[in-house]
Amino acid sequence: MTSVISVKVTTRDGEEKTVTQGAGHTTLMQMLYEEDIGVEAVCGGCASCATCHVLIDPNWMGKLPERDQAELMLLQYAEFYDPERSRLSCQLALTPDMEGMPMVIAPEE
Predict the structure, then answer these.
(1) For residue 108, how many C-alpha atoms fall within 13 Å in the half-sphere facing its CB?
(2) Residue 1 domain-assigned?
(3) How many CB atoms lie under 10 A from the CB of residue 28?
(4) Mean pLDDT of 29-41
(5) How does strand 102-105 pair with strand 53-56?
(6) CA distances from 5 to 11, 70, 82, 96, 101 (A)
(7) Residue 3 binned pLDDT confidence (cut-offs 50, 70, 90)
(8) Is residue 13 part of a domain?
């Protein structure tokens, strides 16, 4: 049995929430999208729109897989790109290492 993952999210309005993985959620994007807190996921998780951009606490970035070329290209063109914190939540498969990970929903482009 896999464990359920919860992350700490700061919304664009500055509200702090704990978001918990629901049934069928395999990516961070799916989990955040269901909460309706600013992750639009227009492309449905295909890494082609950057509307699921989140800013991860820098202390947690090393626990995540490296960005691939497609993700990096999209992020570098985003207005609020931060090389130390920016990730596309659609590209992050949920893993137990993410339990308690803090993040901020990136400002809207």
Answers:
(1) 9
(2) no
(3) 31
(4) 95
(5) antiparallel
(6) 18, 26, 25, 6, 9
(7) confident
(8) yes
